Structures are given as C-alpha cells and as structure tokens.
C-alpha cells in the first residue's frame, strides 16, 4: 500500500526512518524538531546501500533521537499548563552607556513592544568610582542562571578556555557582567535557553522560556538606547553583550541574524580603537597597558580584569571574523589589526580562547584575502597568475615551516604533546589551512598535493577523539570533510551527526553535514569549484 510512510519525495533521513516527511527545505521539520541531521533531497547518498553503511547511519540516528527527544523543550500552550503565563520583558535600571555603532540592532525578531526599564525586581545597584552601574543584589533565579552559564554554557562557547588560578582568572567576566546590564541580560538569556533545552520538568521549561525571551528583549532595548544616545561609558560591556547576543542567535539557528550582530560587534571594536581605546570607556591605565601590549601583571587587580576582558573579546572577534570569512568568501574585516593582535609576542593568545595558535589563524586570514583578491581579479579579467601563485606559495611555505616546528616544546612543562589538546588543535587547523589554500588555488583538482596533510589530520581524529577536542574542530572538520573520499565519508558522518559535536543547544551545527553531503554529491561535477562550496555554505558559522 502506497501510504505516507513511503513518500518518495521526502528527505533521505525520513525515508531511512520510514517517517512521513513534510518536505520543508532545506531541512524538514521532523529532523529539526528531533535535532537530527536532515540528509536533504538531493541525489541518493552513497551510504544508502541496504547494507552496513545504511545500518550504521540508522543506528546513529536512533541514538541521537533517544538522547535528545526526552530533553526537547516543548512548551505547551497556557491552557494546558493549569495557569496562563505571559512572556513580558523584565524591567531594569538606568542604562549604562555604549560606544556608538553603525549598524542598528533590530528588535523585529524579538517583538516590538518595549516596556518600562526602570527597575530590576529584587535587586539593588550602586555606582563605582568610574561611574559604572553595578548590581549589589540579584534575584535567586538570576543567580542560579548566572552559575548555570559559567558551569555549562561558557564551556560550550569556549571549550579550551581554562584560565589559571592567578588573577584575574574568570573574575573579569563576573565583574564585567555585573557592571554591564546588557551583558548581564544576554548571559541570563543564554543560560535560560540552555536550561530550557536540558531540563526535564515542564514548569521549569516554561519558566526558562519566559526568562529567555524577556532578557533578550531587554538586552536589545538597552543596546539600542545606548547607540541612540551616543554614550561611551562601559563600551566594553556593550561590545561583550552584542557578541553574546550573536551567539544566542547562532545557537538558536535564527536564520542569518548572527551575521548582523557580528558585523555590529566588529564595527564597535574598530571604533573602539580610535583615540587609543577611549571610545570603549576603558580606564586610562588599562588603555596604557593595551596600547603598549603589556602583561596584565603591570596593572592593579581591577585594571588587570578590565584588560583581560578586552583581550578576551578582541581574540573572540578576530577568531569569529576569520572563520566567518571562509564561508563568506571575503577578506576578514579586522585584517588590518592582525599584525598587532596575532603577531609574535602578542599578549592576546587565541590558543587560550579557542585552542589554536595565533600564527595559524593569521595564515588562514591571508588565504581568505587571497580568495577574495582572486575572485575580484577574475571578475575584472585582470588575473596575474604569477602574482597569485607567488602569494599562495608564500602562505604554503609559512604553514609548512611552522607546522614542522610544532613539538612538545610548545606544551607546558611536563606535558606531552598528546596530552595538550592545544597542540593537536593547532595541528588540525594547520592541516586544514593547507587544504583550504589548495581549494582556493586548484579547487578539487590535484588533491593528491594535500594528501599528506589530510591523512595526518585524519590520523589525529581517529586516535584523539576526545569530547573536548572535537568541540573546537568544527572548522577543520568542514574543510577537511569537503575533500574526503567516499571510503572515509561515513567516518565524518558519524562525527558530525552525534554528540559531542552535535549538541541540542548548538542547533546551527545541524546544517553542516547536509552541506557536506551536497558537496560530496557535486564535487566530481565538471566545473565545480570552491566558490560553489562557499555559495552553499555562505550563511553558516563554523564554530
């Protein structure tokens, strides 16, 4: 009988699971609701062979459904919960200032009804000597969510961030969010969102949804107020808040909203460099330390915390800007700052933020610029192949030289290379950079040129598959996965379609495997280039 379970037009995931598919594209609702990979509607996947590969994929999907379905946050309509609830924005105190931004922060996706923002119930506030507004008391619910953020959400955003016990540790973050209301509400929203997904109690899920929505709305309203008032005090807190809202939109898979927020944060950062960081409202001593790129030990505890916060978000924005440039096919917007931030001896070290050494991200940024320059030259019909090849060769030699010198000497004293994940992460990103450069230069031709880099990376993945390591390898997995041969495709499917990399909270990652499946299906098509891959993946952030 030809019933709905045999719909031949459904996605390949629903066909495999023998479920009715609503055929929504690019991902059907069934797969999105269950937080499983939607294998799309293109050519029949190679693994669908009625054999072991198909069985392996089916078993993987079953495990994910089992893992996530009982945790899926489904908030029932008010009439089904006994007492009605309303999602209304929380109220709060006088807004502290922000550096002006060139891009407006839209409230359309979070509702247009902005209410009074005069007080935070259950809290009191004070102002320090610099005029920052700080909270002395916060509600029990907010206190719980702040702890939840630090314990559970921050490690998902920054798996490799583990500051030592020395000052300032993580104290700078707590200090900053308690002095910046937009950042405070952005962090509460992220924590509530995570709590809503992983809690089992229905009343708790409903309450978390309320907290999530009201805190997002208040955060955005405060940011808009600051932008309209051209206020510069505590601009660092505003910069941090926009960055956190960017993560919120990304993790909730709210279309391309993350791009607008990332662009706004980058513009704020660039303006903040005017007049030696004065537009960020930083302490004069902090500005001196940052301008001279001095160690944090040169300042007092308060100054060290402020400088640590600035360097953390500086590194974060440089990292996100570079990664987003790969799938946007453009030059990183902060490229002019790379020599100072990513240069040898810089006090801003990305290995302490996202796990990879500065020099690798610097080379990846150069490849991004080379890609855009090549495309512009082609469009103008002015391709200087000699210049392009010289530039590509220079980057290639830089990668090869640096990776040959990665050794146990880079690890902390007494820590072997295989015990220090930052060394492995750096190697993975370096191998990825070699493959990325090849794709920009040759496309999918002459892949044997990068077979050594690919095989070395594959060996690391197969022997060092710790949860902490995989969480930060989204970008390498995508780039390396784009050239994988059919025999290794299932290996990448398993990694990209199961925990820890595929987490119910990190919904944006669900799109990565379907994009790779499309690339695999088309990579042998005549004329298929890396530019086609960029077109397929241009609105995804590989973090």
UniProtKB/TrEMBL annotation:
Region of interest: Disordered: 107-127
InterPro entries according to UniProt: Fun_TF (IPR021858), Zn2-C6_fun-type_DNA-bd_sf (IPR036864), Zn2Cys6_DnaBD (IPR001138)
Protein localization: Nucleus
One example of a Gene Ontology biological process annotation: positive regulation of transcription by RNA polymerase II
A Pfam family recorded for this sequence: Fungal_trans_2
Keywords recorded for this protein, A-Z: Nucleus
Tagged with keyword Ligase: no
SUPFAM superfamilies membership: Zn2/Cys6 DNA-binding domain (SSF57701)
GO cellular component, one term: nucleus
GO molecular function: DNA-binding transcription factor activity, RNA polymerase II-specific; transcription cis-regulatory region binding; zinc ion binding
Sequence ranges assigned to domain Zn(2)-C6 fungal-type in this UniProt record: 10-38
Protein name as catalogued: Zn(2)-C6 fungal-type domain-containing protein
Organism lineage string: Eukaryota, Fungi, Dikarya, Ascomycota, Pezizomycotina
